[in-house]
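Quick question: what would this complex look like in 3D?
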Amino acid sequence: MSDSFIPISKPFIGAREKELVLDALNSGWVSSIGKYIDEFEAGFARYCGTEYALAVSNGTTGLHLALAALDLQPGDEVIVPDLTFVATANAVAYTGATPIFADIDPDTLCIDPASVKSLISERTKAIIPVHLYGHPADMDALTEIGEAHGVHIIEDAAEAHGAEYKGRRVGGLGKCGVFSFYGNKIITTGEGGMLTTNDRDFYLRAKRLRDHAMSPRRRYFHEERGFNYRITNLQAALGVAQLERIDDFLGRRAEIMGWYNSEIAISDSVRLNRVKNWAKSAFWMVCLEVDRLDEAGRDAFMQALKARGIDSRPYFCTMSSMPMYKQPPLPVSARKARIGLNLPSYYELTKRDVQRIGADVNELLATMGPA
Ligand SMILES: Cc1ncc(COP(=O)(O)O)c(C=O)c1O
């Protein structure tokens, strides 16, 4: 099977997932009430070490819900990294507030606290560090800035379930954390998300807004405009089964990263994920950067890999390059977006697969781009 196509990502759905989803189906509780939602929320809060967890329909709605619960208004600003998935910036824009783009650290690919500092104003209401590709952002430096300016920190942990900052799991390091359970994430519910927090009032407000802000005193009376951002019991059943496996999933991702590190001919100018000594990465994506390949060279390299049956994907495009957020580029983000790409990593990827990918990467890199 060594010549079969290797996708970039693939969920692992086992017998336990099928058992619990079938049980949810058979119970008749197919919408947003049911024991699996309670179980998933309680289990995920326990896993993150937070007091509360609130399951939502996806990571994007989770981010929007968190910002709505902070009562963001037009005129407010929220600092987000220039290199992220677009949902981070869009969630800010949905509230009417303005996303302000900060540059990133070249090693962690996460928001650069020095850049954040230079962008803080009296309009800044929140900072959203994204734990990009599974590596945690430098939370102490950001917390210090947040505290000095009375600004909330919302962790976008969509890609970083189980990642640790100085021995603490992400999700409980700021006002709240937001996770995604899309099919390519560390654990999946198909579509789904989770908001984690230690703040009871914030949790209760987010919970009310998730359910159309229905009055607790009068059914079908709504004191403000809320949303339907709920998850279903069927999705939560899948989530409960996936959460049982999370340590195994993360262990395999670390193992896969180790295989890549020994198979790919790394140098100062050909780099894989860099991990700070204070971080434990979830290794959501394997990241490859080749300094001598420009954007066209990187894209040609990915095409050549595809021709050999190996899937890959480019890094995210920068927010500042997109029509709705257009502004002059930020140097580190812009460069990383041009040269970076992600290689396959998923639970069932074997050492032999990684050996094959490594051999193809090394061979192609020896022949591509300027010497
Ligand atoms: C950094 C980041 N934020 C937010 C999201 C949004 O999550 P979802 O796709 O579940 O809406 C994603 C992922 O897809 C993401 O990668």
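Answer marked as accepted. The mean pLDDT is 97.
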